[in-house]
Amino acid sequence: MRLDGSVTEAISIDIWSDIACPWCYIGKRNLEKGLEAVSADEDAPQVNITFHSFELSPDTPVDFDGDEVDFLSGHKGMPRDQVEQMLTHVTGVAENAGLEYRFDLLQHTNTVKAHELLHFAKQQGVQHEMEERLMSAYFTEGKHVGRIDDLVELAAEVGLNPDDTRDALVSSRHLADVRQDQAQAQAYGIQGVPFFVIDGQYGISGAQPPTAFENVLRDLWSKRGETGAEAAPEEATA
């Protein structure tokens, strides 16, 4: 609500991500820090956030035989020592964002069922809580996030009914929603994640610093009376 009492439509933030993407969790934290900063503004932007599905490695088996170094060296064709250096770098960036990554515990897996769970959680009004729980479980706790039994346990932790959750996952009820998200990403030309589409006008690619989000949100909120373009988003410069 504006200071003059008028109601202003919230800014939409649509996030394409994969819960197995280390930069997505970092980007999520940086967005949260940006939102926290603008929340202190006298006329603070109001936002609605929706997470969308993107599979980085859809051909990954549910139970991958090996660690993260094995997966990345095989998937990307990189030498093991180079992969280890890359993971050390990512761990440091994550630490700066307040996250303690444990690649030594991480269980690489297929994430399609996790994405189905996120759509089920969205339907139940707890998508944000489920996204956070899945990313934390995967990157910091070494939990398996590809098997239905494990996903049901994590879902129960955010208040979802275990029986209803299991039914949704076993039936693949939300697989069509996952595919629809992926089709939209393709239509937008999104080739990597995280990718943030803000108000259908700005596209922010990668785990940008909190200030990148602050600047875009403040700019959009100040121009809220203007009609946003309906075309595919242009990538914003951070």
TrEMBL record:
GO terms for molecular function: isomerase activity; oxidoreductase activity. Residues 13-217 form the DSBA-like thioredoxin domain. Coiled coil: none annotated. Gene3D superfamilies: Glutaredoxin. SUPFAM superfamilies: Thioredoxin-like. CDD domains: DsbA_FrnE. Keywords: Isomerase. It comes from the Bacteria. PANTHER family: GLUTATHIONE S-TRANSFERASE KAPPA (PTHR13887), THIOREDOXIN SUPERFAMILY PROTEIN (PTHR13887:SF41). This is Predicted dithiol-disulfide isomerase, DsbA family. It comes from Microbacterium hydrocarbonoxydans.
